[in-house]
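WARN no homologs supplied; continuing
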Amino acid sequence: MTPGITAEPTWFGHPRGLTVLFLTNMWEQFSYYGMRALLVYYMTKQLMMPQESASLVYGAYTACAYFTPIVGGVIADRFLGKRNAILIGGSVMAAGHFMMAFEPLFYPALVTIALGNGLFLPSLPSQIGDLYAPGDARAGSAYNVYYVGVNIGGFLAPLICGTLGELYGWHWGFGAAGIGMLGGLAFYIWGQRYLPSQSPKQFPRQPIARSAAPRLRFPRKTALTLLAIALSVTVFRGAYEQVGNTLALWADVGVDRHVGSAIIPMTWFQSLNPLLVMAMTPPLLAWWQRRTAAGAVERPARRMALGAAIVAAAYLMLAGVESIGGPAHWLWLVLFFVILTLGELHILPTGLGLFARLAPKGLGATTVAAWFLASFAGSIAAGLVGTLWSRTTHSGFFVLLALIAGLAAAMLLLIEHTSSATEKLSETG
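OK structure emitted
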């Protein structure tokens, strides 16, 4: 039995704690994606912001939501412990979502959500590794299973929060997001008996012998490789993060959403990505496992490069569709999400798993927080790129996004070919 776990039985072939963690993050993702589905539309339609300003605010918010975990991870590891960090961070996030229901509190609410997210986000996935004994073969696939679980919340959010926001008022949608966050906290508190102890790392206050001091350092080559991967993901997110930004605007003005006499709500398309993550992950994992059993060794950087290239192809497809002229049929947008999601599953869970599995003992949340540094920088880049939406043709803009994703693919291939540290990263699960 894995140390620290109080029950041996499993759920879905994994420790029960994994189910607790993805149920917790499922509802956190519900709150995040519920608010994100409404944010650009709320700014442009309710607050009457120019598109360029709305894209910048969107990029700045998502960047801050990824930057605060860098500090929050350190606080969780050294002072609060992961459990307290999740409870405090989740409560602050819920308060921020409810503040979004009041128009004068728009900017303070965004800041509040980002601060709470800083404690919550790195502390949850960094607990996954604690559920498995060293050498447990299930550990590699745990992050993909976790990724499916959290996307359930991302799927439900636009359908519920988006529908409430479009039909009954944006503030109803934001309120529903806050309720989702409280649901996540309730699941986490309920499932404590299935999780290991998460006390903060204790560092001695008195001078001690050098040989007895805690050694909390990365091997240099591994650190450099992870840094290079983070830079590549930063570039990738400049294109990927347009899904909730300019792509959402295109769904409103550039897509024919009619089904007979009915019109598909524009926010509903944002449910496609998490739905497809859930549908495509099991067969994709089975394919990778068959390849591994057949003796094929696929480096994580190469897998991630393939994912970035697939996303580039998705944007090139949209560029071709848009160049034809006239509103695009909504099925093209569905096909885009199918291709985008396939690429996403190659790159994002793989990268998160690398950072979490290679973390030194005692610095799990801090290392996962470093992964989100790439998301922070990439979100800023996405906000800046998004300002070009109104300054160029839609077709040209999609070509630009394809070039950005293609550059990320090239960078990841270079890492795979040049870094000797990738020898340590060959186990992808």
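Confidence is low (pLDDT under 50) at residues 1-7, 202-206, 208-213, 424-429.
OK
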